Amino acid sequence: MAAPKKGRSASAQSKPGRSLALILIAIAALTGGMFVSGDTKPRLGIDLAGGTSITLRAVAEPGQESAINQTNLNTAVDIMNRRVNGLGVSEAEVQTQGDRNIIVNIPKGTNSKEARDQVGTTAKLYFRPVLATDLSGAAAPTPSATGSSSGKPTAPADKATGKGEPSSSPSGSSKPSPSATSQGRALTDALKADSSPSPTTTPGKASSSPSASGSAADTSRLQAQYTALNCVDKAQRATAGRLAKPTDPTVACGQNSQKQWQKYLLGPAEVDGTDVDKAEAVYATQGSIGWKVTMTFTSKGSKKFAAITGKLAQNQSPQNEFAIVLDGEVVSNPYVTQSLSGTAEISGSFNQEEAKNLANVLSYGALPLTFKEDSVTTVTAALGGEQLHAGLLAGAIGLALVVIYLVLYYRGLSVVAIASLLVSAALTYVLMSLLGTAVGFALNLPAVCGAIVAIGITADSFIVYFERIRDEIREGRTLRPAVERAWPRARRTVLVSDFVSFLAAAVLFIVTVGKVQGFAFTLGLTTVLDVVVVFFFTKPLMTLLARRKFFADGHKWSGLDPKSLGAKPPLRRTRRPAGPAAGPVETKEA
């Protein structure tokens, strides 16, 4: 038996049912998951579902009007984005307007009062001593305060170290995990030690009195909170430490350099964000430090910082660390080995972006900026609903025109195209419904526009394949070999076309913000689905139909009639009569 010619696949010709079964099973599984999860409809954006729109106006402290600038407003936008994302909000928009306003749009379904409380308050930044830390969800303590992310102290005395190098602290060893009893005793001792009075601590603060950590019941309660805290859980992460008073110990969550969530038991705040006079990211040209963050404290802050670092330097890891806590989340936790004064550095294996982000966090905590609510309005979905209706009507008209064209021009082949469009539509709908919960995708008007544009992209792939098949038939080949010979060239064209569309969608998604990202995401998703449908549905279905007499014999309504296509007569094998004068045998093959 001759081997299949180049461009053909024996398995593709003989077992197309496998590919069809695979994609149909995938659709059934995704649909089942959709109903099991209860997400039977795509989540809608604020322009379609309505919601709350909050306008915040930046207000500077007297004499600090220059603090209202674009850099500080952008930093505030980043912090507010983190807050609303912590509420589980999808498609929330936080953006600047003019030179002092911030607009927050939150879709319907979110607690508007809670959202207003989150975004309308000034960011709270505190420096808290670390009493204990553990990789959230793990049975054993983590190697260091940031999960092997603490760096070694740098040479100058006034430098704290942060994320980067593996820690050399005792907690970095592979000792067995302590028992629950010994760990509870350690936490109790840490709380008691943290409650001891400090000579430079401001009178009246909780940490200045032996009873600051509360009674034994309070200690047990805090220990229980720390033990039960699972920072991998988004709901727990969003509330951990958010309501704690700066004068009380608390628990908190933060990510280490491996992007793993850790939980922390923290003492009362010793330094406020307003005690930081200046923070900036700089690149160290000497040594191998690389990017670092430098901090300068106010005169009052210098005394506080010297007191806390002097106390921490006497402890063992992780109790020689201080946590930089923004809105209840630990953003960094460097450790110290000696008392630091008015200036400090946080160094380690920072890249430029990480150093700038931390510097922004530290700077924003010191900004003399507050935000006042100028207006809070409820956005109805009436306008968006009208636009959606018009968009869907336009899409339906466009789809109807495409179907009419396919039926008139391709006749029987239009069955393949329409069936493929239905499969693509089913996959798109199910995935949009599931992605609403999975990644926070919300369907807005631009996203609907992207789905409508995808109809043309998908139909174009079918047309490319159909025309390749018809070209093979015009060359005099029968349908079954024409289907297989046309596929490699059609496949190449489809892949190149879809790659260009996907690349454009990816670039658009990266460089844009807000609703335009919805268009780019939908366009990219439907482009990927187009490849899946063409490979696993359209081609196998065409292979099966090529075996049917209606299509194989070129019925005039099949769309593959050789006569109407102007096909050449089939080329057949011919031989000259054998004999002494006979020349070489000539063969011609269809």
Describe the structure.
The chain has 590 residues and is an alpha+beta fold. The protein has three domains: 16-45 and 380-552, Multidrug efflux transporter AcrB transmembrane fold; 51-119, 2-Layer Sandwich (Alpha-Beta Plaits), CATH 3.30.70.3220; 125-363, no CATH class. Helix content is 46%, strand content 16%. The protein is built from 16 helices and 14 strands. A five-stranded mixed β-barrel has the order 4-7-6-12-11, surrounded by four helices. Strands 2-3-1-14 form a four-stranded antiparallel β-sheet. Mean pLDDT is 75; it is low at 1-12, 139-159, 161-186 and 196-214.
What's the helical proportion of residues? 40-55%
Strands of the widest sheet, in order across it, are: 4-7-6-12-11
Number of strands: 14
Instruction: Determine the N-to-C terminus distance.
Output: 18 Å
Give the topology:
Blueprint (H helix, E strand, L loop, with lengths): L9 H5 L1 H22 L8 H4 L1 E10 L9 H17 L6 E5 L3 E7 L4 H8 L5 E11 L24 E2 L18 H15 L21 H13 L5 H6 L10 E6 L5 E6 L4 E2 L3 E9 L5 E8 L1 H14 L9 E5 L2 E4 L10 E8 L1 H15 L2 E11 L2 H29 L3 H25 L6 H30 L4 H33 L3 H31 L3 H4 L38
Helix pairs in contact: 2-12, 2-15, 11-12, 11-13, 12-13, 12-15, 13-14, 13-15, 14-15
Q: Which features characterize this protein?
A:
elongated, alpha+beta, Multidrug efflux transporter AcrB transmembrane fold, 16% strand, 46% helix, 3 domains, 590 residues, 16 helices, 5-stranded mixed β-barrel, 4-stranded antiparallel beta sheet, Alpha-Beta Plaits
